[in-house]
Amino acid sequence: MNNKIRFFHLLIIIALFLGACNLPSNNPEDIRATAAAQTVEALLSATPAIPDTATPTPFETITPIPTAAFTSTPLATATSNCNVAQFITDVTIPDGTIMTPGQSFTKKWRIRNIGSCAWNGYNLVFDSGEALGASPSKPIALVNPGQELDLEVAFTAPATAGTYRSYWRIVTNGNVLVPVVSGYQGRSFYVEIKVQAPTPSNTQLNLNAIASESGTLYEPAAGVPQTILAGDTGDNSIARGYMSFDISSISGKTIQSASLNLGSCSTMQNPFTSLSGIWVGEVQYPLPLDQADYNISGNGIVLLDSIPAPIDVKTNVQARVTEGKARFQIRLHPAGLSDNDGQADYITCNAGSVTLTIVHNP
Questions:
Q1: Is the confidence at residue 343, as pLDDT, over 60?
Q2: CA-based angle 313:314:317, to the nearest 5?
Q3: Which of 11, 88, 236, 326 is 20 to 30 Å apart from 163, CA to CA?
Q4: Where are the domains of the chain?
Q5: Does domain 203-360 sit in CATH 2.60.120?
Q6: Which residues are CB-contacts of 111 (< 8 A; sequence separation ≥ 6)?
Q7: In CATH, 85-195 is 2.60.40.10
Q8: What CA–CA distance (Å, rounded) separates 238 from 338?
Q9: Interatomic CA distance for residues 351 and 157, integer angstroms
């Protein structure tokens, strides 16, 4: 581009020079033309100065990052643990089983060998908690990988009520702990029991009527025989039978059941029909039994139309026991008047065969 500019300037100077040649020499203009020509000549003869050329700064050579040679390294393969157990289930004695003091029992745990080594010479040993009378160590038979077995220990429940745990673990023949998957804290398994004092069993009391306090009253009065009879007689007298039971031994007890059994009684004719039935009621008469008790008030329990099955008298007995009474007393009497047929119609019982059965708590 600079060369083109210089060439253009040169053409202008040459044109000026040629024009000056046609003018007189003494003309001032000639002088100037001569000077111009000399200038042109000087320009043409001069060695053109090479303009400074900007030397570009070379870029820094980027050294490529060497590509690491890729070597395929296989992932590490998990090595199977040699000694690992897995708790499967409680075979016997679920957690929280109720035991009585001193009760003997056997606990079984189902365990699987999930390691890669056979268990040879291994032991089941007590770890912590309550030993519960068990031997602290027990050998385990050979168990190959993948096999299951039931480990069992004989225990005895403590004498004191409470909740107890006994922890057990497996150790190698070098006394190294074998981890237990699904076990307690990954190391053991346990038995848990609850010891409770046995609930005292209920007591059954079988009482017969007291012959000396039992008997029959008639209307009109005819003495107090100890035979218990209720109905009418051949002379159309009305008879009422009384029976007394000693309950002094169960004062303050809670009654679970009480029944009066008249199954041993017998009948003459049919008092249940001819006399409109026989009432069984509770009375409280002072001892000894006498004629003044013939019309003593009482509470009806049941009206019989035949020799009955055992009669429920729990409520009545409980009331007397709660009151601290020493006797429970019963009266049998016809529901209606004599039928005046001149024939005896009655139910009769023997004091020694009439039974009051009471079940109470201790």
A1: yes
A2: 85
A3: 88
A4: 1-31, 85-195, 203-360
A5: yes
A6: 85, 86, 87, 88, 148, 149, 150, 151, 170, 180, 189
A7: yes
A8: 6
A9: 49
